[in-house]
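[job 0412] stage=complex_fold ligand=iron/sulfur cluster status=START
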Amino acid sequence: MGVFDEADDWRERTLEDVLLHCRDLVEDPTFPTVARFRETGGKVLGHFQVYFPEEIAHAAGMLPVKLRGAPLDPDHAESRFGSYLCSIVKTTLELPLAGHLKLDLFVSHPICDAARNLAAIFSRNFAHPSQILYLPQNANSSHTVTYLRAEYARLQADVEAVAERALTHEDLRASIAVFDENRRLLRELYALKRERPWVVAAEDAYALVALAGMLPREEHNELLRWVLPRLAARGGKAEDRVRVVFEGGFCEQPPFDLVRVIGRACYVVDDDWLIGLRYLTDDVGRTDDPLHALAEAYIERSSYSPVQHDLRKPKEEMLLARVRGADAGAVILAAAKMCEPGLEEQVAYAQSLEAAGVPFLVTELEENMTSFSGIELQLETFVENLLFA
Ligand code: SF4
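[job 0412] stage=complex_fold status=DONE, emitting structure tokens
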């Protein structure tokens, strides 16, 4: 029996029922899959946005859980932060403070001023260890991969201490193979979104990706292996809808209802939602030195986000490549409220889209927003202008 469902027979259900269960799990702020994993005696590593080498936790038998905030009021966490900060840092702390999520190790990255202090705040509030992973600030130095390998080795020692077991190269290679398969399956899902967006609703695709961050990856692979061919077998044909790329979901996530609203108005053919789970764009592969291979993949074969700085990957060009790659006709350019890196990049993105003649809609998001009438109206006008121009 796995943690995806209490029943063993989910494969006997219809595709629609399984997708409904996926959406319910992702919308549930009590993380039932993580609680079930703990009941079996497993330990949990929570990692804050954006990218984290989950293979290291997996190899030690821990469940790596992507901390992506939650649509809840940060009643307990509010007193630990200034009111001027983005929502995701508060709700991420709220999850364990409110007893929804129990961790054995917390890891964050100093991606911005708000996230910089998260590990320190966690360590003042919880008995479990909290760590900072310093992903390289300069991806263009010839020493970057060596530096990052050493940083991963330091993290591995913390993981080993919590998991109470030493990792071998073979443990890491086995985990990399599981995650390489997962990345291939997620790429397949995104290919489906691009090629036949009418067979997979935006919120279903979102839920399927998000589950990677809250299920043992073998189970997630099994789920995707079951779901993808059934989605691909769906019939239907393209409706007269605008094909859009959504940009601005690299850290704080749009609420599920917003994804649903956008998915009803347009075809979301590509996006950066939960990009950390899809950050490595190719297989890491089997090598003598798995930590080096993971570090090299992060530097050499990875996507982009406003918090990774690499001169070889100008973000404006990367966005245009994403638009062209998905044959999109427009972009929804969002930024989380109070998110400095996101707002800064939004300006540069807007300028390059304008120069390239790609229509775009600028908007903002907050994970616990509850009213969507404003954005629905904005979208309606945007889409009508494009369809009837
Ligand atoms: S949403 Fe923006 S400001 Fe908030 S933690 Fe993420 S990157 Fe930092």
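The beta strands are 44-48, 63-67, 105-108, 130-132, 243-247, 267-271, 330-336, 360-365.
[job 0412] exit 0
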